[in-house]
Design a protein that fits this description.
It is a single chain. It contains 5 helices and 11 strands, in the order H-H-H-H-H-E-E-E-E-E-E-E-E-E-E-E. With about 210 residues, it is an alpha+beta fold. A hairpin with an 8-residue loop joins strand 2 and strand 3. The chain is globular and about 60 Å long.
């Protein structure tokens, strides 16, 4: 397992010899337990691995393994209270009440996106966007005086991602009448940056697309 991880993390050639584990064992027991970045690198090993990792069955196996363990938490937001509980079977009844770091009722907090314990939320009364870590009670208001970081419920889309430099970013797509503006907020620099996206006019629409 450690040897396989080292192979996937390494970008240089290695003379390491691996035991013959068999393709079935690797596909069903080893690859699904690797972190997402390692799985992404594993796609480049061969066509067989690419086909396996791209399948719905592998995605489900990987998700199940990533969700195991008591480190996974569930955030429950009610009308007047907010709780954190563990996902372990024996700990399902253990809940910890937390106090919101912003002065609104829990029911006035909209969760827009989540990634690795971080939440991007919107306050219903002001439409300000914030990055919130409920476990350590940390919160950053990412809205500013230039109207960046304000969410419109019927036209905007928000997502969290990690870029190639391991910087957590908030992607904010703002759709207007025949316009699409895309902004990215960097947690490292605490600044918004406009991203060129869909410059051709025939891509723009004021109607939500459905598939």
């Amino acid at each position: 397992m450690k040897k396989l991880k080292g192979c996937l993390y390494s970008t240089s050639e290695s003379n390491t010899k691996f035991p013959d584990l068999g393709p079935d064992l690797i596909m069903s027991e080893i690859l699904p337990r690797l972190p997402a970045k390692c799985v992404g690198r594993a796609k480049k090993v061969c066509k067989e691995w690419l086909s396996c990792i791209s399948s719905k069955e592998f995605v489900m196996m990987h998700c199940r393994h990533m969700c195991k363990g008591s480190r996974q938490k569930i955030l429950s937001i009610g009308h007047e209270s907010c709780f954190i509980s563990s996902t372990g079977v024996d700990l399902v009844d253990e809940k910890t009440m937390i106090t919101l770091p912003f002065h609104v009722r829990p029911s006035d907090v909209w969760i827009l996106s989540s990634l690795n314990g971080l939440l991007c939320v919107c306050l219903r009364n002001t439409f300000e966007m914030l990055i919130w870590n409920p476990l350590i009670r940390s919160c950053i208001n990412i809205s500013d005086s230039k109207s960046y970081g304000f969410f419109k419920i019927y036209s905007d889309v928000v997502g969290l991602y990690i870029d190639s430099s391991n910087d957590y970013r908030v992607l904010h797509i703002k759709r207007g009448r025949f316009t699409v503006d895309v902004m990215a907020y960097s947690r490292r620099t605490s600044h918004w940056k406009r991203i060129p996206f869909l410059q051709k006019r025939h891509y723009h629409t004021n109607v939500l697309a459905c598939w």
